[in-house]
Amino acid sequence: MSITIRLAERADVAAVAEWNAAMAWETEHKRLDPDVLTRGVSAVFDEPRRGFYLVAEHEGRAAGCLLVTYEWSDWRNGDLWWIQSVYVTPDARRSGVFRAMYADVTQRAKANGAVGLRLYVETENARAQRTYHELGMEQCHYFMYEQML
User: Fold this and answer.
1) Which fold does the domain 3-134 belong to in CATH?
2) What are the pLDDT digits (tens) for 119-138?
3) 14 to each of 4, 17, 38, 41, how far by Cα in Å?
4) Would you say 81 and 70 are in contact if contact means Cβ atoms under 8 Å apart?
5) CA-to-CA distance for 6 and 66, rounded, in angstroms?
6) pTM
């Protein structure tokens, strides 16, 4: 089993947008506007300050991705890296693809002086929660609130 992780390139925009749409449907039964989604993925490449995508390749085929964005923490005087838009293709799930992407993000974060990693997970997604716990992540004591504008 061969898993490689690489920085996404602009040529990956269509695949990343497709995977984000699939993830939104699988986790929230939400249909995303394909044009808005494609522009949103492209915007990360237009402005690197927004973050970056990683793409996982499993046995020579693109098998998933994730997005890293940044949050400044004045309490810690450093950046927290947020892992978002995680998707692994159904045929590659439970084969170590996410673990390989997580290891890569961890290494990059340490090398760039980040003070921590964060992500959010659907409250019903027990399998993902177990995976994150097994990787050494801890459940936070915060609720997430939002107001879309």
Assistant:
1) Aminopeptidase (3.40.630)
2) 988 888 888 888 889 988 89
3) 20, 5, 7, 9
4) yes
5) 11
6) 0.91
pLDDT in tens, 75-91: 999 999 999 999 999 99
DSSP assignment of 23-87: HHHHHH--PPPHHHHHHHHHHHHH-GGG-EEEEEEETTEEEEEEEEEEEEETTTTEEEEEEEEEE
Structure tokens at 117: 């990693």
Q: Which two tokens stand for residue 7?
A: 């920085």
Residues making up the chain, counted from first to last: 149
As given in the structure block, the two tokens for residue 37 are 């989604």
The sheet with strand 78-88 has its strands ordered as 3-7, 52-58, 61-73, 78-88, 116-119
Q: Could you report the per-residue pLDDT of 2-36, keeping only the tens digit for each?
A: 999 999 999 999 999 999 999 999 988 999 999 99
